[in-house]
Amino acid sequence: MQLAIYRFRLGAKHSIGHKDLLRLWAAACRSDNVTVSRVAATFGHDDKGYIYSLQGPPKVPDSPEIRQRISASLTAALPKASIVIQRQFA
After folding, report:
1. Which of 20, 11, 33 is nearest to 70 (CA)?
2. Between 90 and 28, where is the model more confident?
3. What phi, psi does 13 have (nearest 5°)?
4. Residue 78 has what DSSP assignment?
5. Residue 1 vs residue 65, higher pLDDT
6. 25-80 pLDDT, tens digit each
7. Which strands make up the sheet holding 86-87, listed edge to edge?
8. How far is the CA of 12 from the CAs of 5, 27, 39, in angstroms?
9. First-to-last CA distance in the chain?
10. How far apart are alpha carbons 85 and 56 in whole angstroms?
11. Per-residue pLDDT for 90 more than 70?
């Protein structure tokens, strides 16, 4: 069973592919037992983009190290995007 651990959003000018995001997330968690997803969203008047969800097994902790690794990886992959990673609460 996978649990949503983090989420972040990107506006229409920025995107990351499923395989690339999965690779970054697996490296951040140091586990291949993770999944990712995205859904289209509208954040305001004509502000469209995606909300990304990073999932993992219940044993993946909400640790500062994992959060820092995924944040650094996303920043390197999308240097012009403003990325704020939020803890996903069930």
Report:
1. 20
2. 28
3. -80, -10
4. S
5. 65
6. 999 999 899 999 999 888 777 778 889 999 988 777 668 899 999 999 999 999 99
7. 35-44, 47-56, 3-11, 86-87
8. 23, 26, 12
9. 13
10. 15
11. no
Give the count of beta carbons closer than 10 Å to the beta carbon of residue 26: 16
> Where do the domains of the chain lie, and which CATH numbers do they carry?
3-87 (3.30.70.3220)
| pLDDT of 3 higher than 90 | no
What pLDDT was estimated at residue 51? 92
Q: How far apart are CA 66 and CA 75, in angstroms?
A: 14
Residue type, 20: D
Burial level of 14, CB count in 10 A (0-12/13-18/19+)? middle
